[in-house]
Amino acid sequence: MALVENFLPKKDDWYATAHLEQQLKDYAAIGEKLIWQRQAIFLAATILAAFYVDPVVSFSSYAAVLFTEVLDLVLSRRLRRWTDGEPEKSFKFLRWVMFNTVASAGAISLFVVLITLQQGPNGHFTPLFFLVAASLFAAVNNHQLLPALFLRLIIYGATFMFIATWDLIRLSPPINSEVWLQFFTVAFVLYFIVDCSMVFLKLYRQGLEHIDELRQEHEKTKVALMAKSQFLSTVSHELRTPLTSVKGALELVRSGVMGPLPNNIQPAINTAARNSKRLADLINDLLDLQQIETGEMAFRFKLVNVRELVSDAVIMSKPYADQLDVSLSVTNADEDIFIKGDVDRLQQVMANLISNASKFSHRGDTVTISVSRTQNRVRINVKDNGTGIPEDAKERVFGRFSQVSSSDLRKFSGTGLGMNISKKIVERHGGQIDYESIVGCGTTFFIEFGLVLPQPEVPSVQPIS
């Protein structure tokens, strides 16, 4: 193991220790993925060598290579199950990888050397080709761990040089002979393999650095998002209390409880009351959005009767529709239909759909709310006869702080958050929200949920006294 220890990274090498776990897992994953490809290559080389050289030497060498493959497979599976990420274990696993590298590269090199010795001085094309294939395979697929790659290439390089110099030592040929040509060709091939290995290693390390940069940016984004959410929550809560007092006081003044108002003051009070309501709606929407983003919005799921849900939503939305001179018409189901949901949050969605349909309807129009049922789905439709929505506006309809019409001529203002919040609430219920619209003819928004069949009540049996 002393030879192996010389190739291990030092524990004070930041780059090596910071990425060692990822490199080990990548190395093991590639090794396990390509195991059958390697076996096919080894077996083909063994059969060729057995037929043309020596079957005993060939299959004995293949058995040694196969044994090292089993060791690699066992280690790869242990690495895949390793999850604690302890640095000490990283270096322990790396030592085993290095040991297996010596065993594997040594078995392959022994196989090649034995074929060379069996051939005699005839160029050694076959063993050299096998060694080139093994070296390129290592360069392309084993570049994740520099110590393992470096050690494997040293063993293969030594084998290359043995094959190239064996005939030189035995034959002492002149410089212009083919034996020397083979020697220089082997040296060139070695340079080529080392260069390929460095290229793949550089690309892999660039990938690791890029992943690190993305991970750091992700952490910064998470911190910024958390800071934004905390700031938004704090500001919204601090604003809501005094705004509630201001809004309540303005409503009291408008109602005349505190005495009649002069005619020249009434319009200003009305404007202040409307704007205070808009500001209160914005704060409530911001708080809802912040709770949804952070996962803090509580949902209390229970069995919900859709008929009652729609009826209650129409009753609560009727005063607003009356202000706009819009009628609400309900076509409810003939039977009780149940879904699983949070009544308050679903009422929030229904109020948003009905208020939007009322806002964008013409005076004297009717907004129709209907319930339909398929085999296992429930759909609630809210239909208006307004101006409709353009075909390319879906992202704006369900986006944040966006509305279909952002011009100053838009008849009604809003926060631009209502549909986005409604979409998130419906999706949290496992449902779907969408719309169908024709410009100039109106829009139908719908929400769909999975049907829930209520469990029949089991009558209690009274004991006979």
Structure description:
By secondary structure, the chain is an alpha+beta fold. Among the domains are: 2-172; 302-450, Heat Shock Protein 90, CATH 3.30.565. The chain contains 13 helices and 7 strands. The chain has helices spanning 2-6, 14-33, 35-52, 55-81, 87-119, 125-141, 146-171, 178-255, 266-294, 306-323, 343-359, 394-397, 418-428; strands spanning 302-305, 327-331, 338-341, 366-373, 377-384, 432-438, 442-450. α3 (35-52) runs antiparallel to α4 (55-81) and α7 runs antiparallel to α8. The radius of gyration is 38 Å and the shape is elongated.
What would you say about this model in short?
This protein is of the alpha+beta class and 465 residues long.
Q: What are the segments in which pLDDT stays under 50 over at least 5 consecutive residues?
A: 1-8, 11-15, 406-410, 460-465
- Please count the helical segments: 13
Q: Roughly what fraction of the amino acids lie in strands?
A: 5-15%
The helix content is 55-70%
Sheet with most strands: 5 strands, mixed
Helix and strand element order: HHHHHHHHHEHEEHEEHHEE
Radius of gyration: 38 Å
Major β-sheet strand ordering: 2-4-5-7-6
- Number of DSSP strands? 7
Salient structural properties:
about 65% helix, two-stranded antiparallel ribbon, about 475 residues, Heat Shock Protein 90, 13 helices, single chain, five-stranded mixed sheet, alpha+beta, disordered N terminus, disordered C terminus, elongated
In terms of topology, how is this protein built?
Elements: H1 2-6, H2 14-33, H3 35-52, H4 55-81, H5 87-119, H6 125-141, H7 146-171, H8 178-255, H9 266-294, E1 302-305, H10 306-323, E2 327-331, E3 338-341, H11 343-359, E4 366-373, E5 377-384, H12 394-397, H13 418-428, E6 432-438, E7 442-450
Parallel strand pairs: 2-4
Antiparallel strand pairs: 1-3, 4-5, 5-7, 6-7
Helix pairs in contact: 2-4, 2-5, 3-4, 4-5, 5-6, 5-7, 6-7, 6-8, 7-8, 8-9, 9-13, 10-11, 11-13
